Amino acid sequence: MLNKQEWCAARFGSELPDCLPLPELREVPGCEWAAYALSIAKDPEPETLAAAALLLLGVYGGINEAGLSVWNGNSYRPLRQEWKPDEAPAELIKNVGTMLAEGAAYAWEAGEARDVLGVEAGRGIALSLHGELPPEQREGLALIFSAAPGKLVITYNSCLYTEPFIRVMTLSLGEILDRLTTAETLAGLRVTAGETMDILDSFNDTVHAYNKTDTIVAQFCARAAERPDNLAVVYEDKSYTYARVQDLAFRLAGYVSRQGLGRGDTVAVFIPRCEYMVIASLGVLRAGCAYEPLDPNYPDERLAFMVKDAGVRLIIVADELLPRMANFTEFDGTVLRISEIPSLPQPDAAALAAIPFPEPDNLFMLIYTSGTTGVPKGVRLLQKNLMAYAAWYRRYFNATEQFRVTCYNSYG
Q1: Do residues 307 and 377 lie in contact, with contact meaning Cβ atoms separated by under 8 Å?
Q2: Are 190 and 59 in contact (CB under 8 A)?
């Protein structure tokens, strides 16, 4: 038989990873102990409870080993195990039982088990095989596992953990105990309790009813008909009502349509931050096209590539940016200055009705990745994507006609 020093060197020679689940809170003076108990149908054997506790710590740490101090009613002894995912649970239980028996053959001084494990004071974890751990034996600990007739108990430092956190942990410990003797492998062992799974599944219950047949363009037109004199766009000292925005957007839509553009086409909009971020986009969309925002902060080489890649035949440009169009050497389409939009003819009702509204599956916007890993790539945003976002926004913020929304992001 090995002496204690030889046994510790053989069993605990390598450094033990920190097994304490990440605390939620920061420890402050005057902390108190709290406990959470879970009723169980069958009391576990000591080696089974110890194996379950080690597995639980391994799960929380994302590792296949764990260690803790075991209280035998008189003193602590160290326990540590490593395992492989494809290992049978019975093998782990057997190994834990063997180590518990080996450790019981030696006499242990106060604090010795913690030193052997290499655990910092205040971060210790203990397992009591003899009911509740006496308060005077809790110094330096953060978590204590124990069992009493008909229940599992986790006692914890309430300055480090909250009750909901410990509740989930206790439920998982119960789940492991329920399945430990029947699972084929440790990897196949379910560790998440049914109650916890129900909570996690509820996070994905995000389905809400909303209008999936409409588009943003159609909804804007409906609001403009209902509240034509309400403010729609404000930029610096300029203000535009819904009626005025719609008037300008319809003029632009008629122009775009007369260029032979509609559904399936993309129009580039090369402007700085201004009111036409809304007006030009809406006009292009009402023509059935998608818009491609061109951010003036980008190099012309990148912008020219985006225009070419998108197959753009019309660019709407701010007057002050018109000289930069000379760098778009491969573009041979039409250029429209935003200063020309107010003087464009307003299409009559028949001409406007002949321009089909976009449909939910049509392209809304084409934006491009940064290109840091190579050539920038186009990203398609569909009309229905915007409708889903708008529905969420209204629901989450309970938006009303009194709302004012600030556009803080760049146009591109």
Answers
A1: no
A2: no
- In degrees, rounded to 5, the angle at the alpha carbon of residue 26 between the alpha carbons of residues 23 and 30 is 115
Res. 145 pLDDT band, cuts 50 70 90: very high
Q: For residue 83, which amino acid is it?
A: W
Q: Considering the chain, what is the average pLDDT of its residues?
A: 92
Q: Give the mean model confidence (pLDDT) for residues 84-101.
A: 95
278: helix, coil or strand? helix
Query: pTM of whole model > 0.85?
Result: no
Distances (CA, A) of 110 to 34, 104, 138, 194, 377: 24, 15, 12, 40, 65
Q: What is the pLDDT of residues 382-410, one digit of tens each?
A: 999 999 999 998 888 888 888 888 887 88
Q: Name the nearest CA neighbour of 392 among 221, 206, 216.
A: 206
Q: How far is CA 81 from CA 47, 63, 94, 117, 401, in A?
A: 12, 11, 11, 11, 63
Whole-Å CA distances, 10 to 4, 5, 50, 99, 116: 10, 9, 20, 12, 11
CA distance to 143, 245, 248, 373, per residue, from 273 (Å): 56, 16, 18, 28
Three-state DSSP state, 51: helix
- Kind of pairing between the strands at 33-39 and 151-157: antiparallel
**How wide is the angle at C-alpha 251 spanned by C-alphas 245 and 255, nearest 5°?**
140
CA dihedral 345, 348, 350, 351 (to 10 degrees): 10
Q: Is the sign of the CA dihedral 196, 199, 204, 207 positive or negative?
A: positive
